[in-house]
Amino acid sequence: MRREGVTASVMIDAGGASFEVHLTPGAIDALRIEEGKEVWLVIKTYSYNLVEPSAR
Q: Which residues sit opposite 7 in a β-bridge?
């Protein structure tokens, strides 16, 4: 978790796919988000770019 001014960035590992999530510090406190805690990830967007997985 990295706080950056009025927002915080959290990296989420969702079964092998990683997401960088931006929240307010107040949301992190209210939801009691901490490292290692299981969370639900809901994606809401108005646009997206489909990216092919990289070769490993």
A: 4
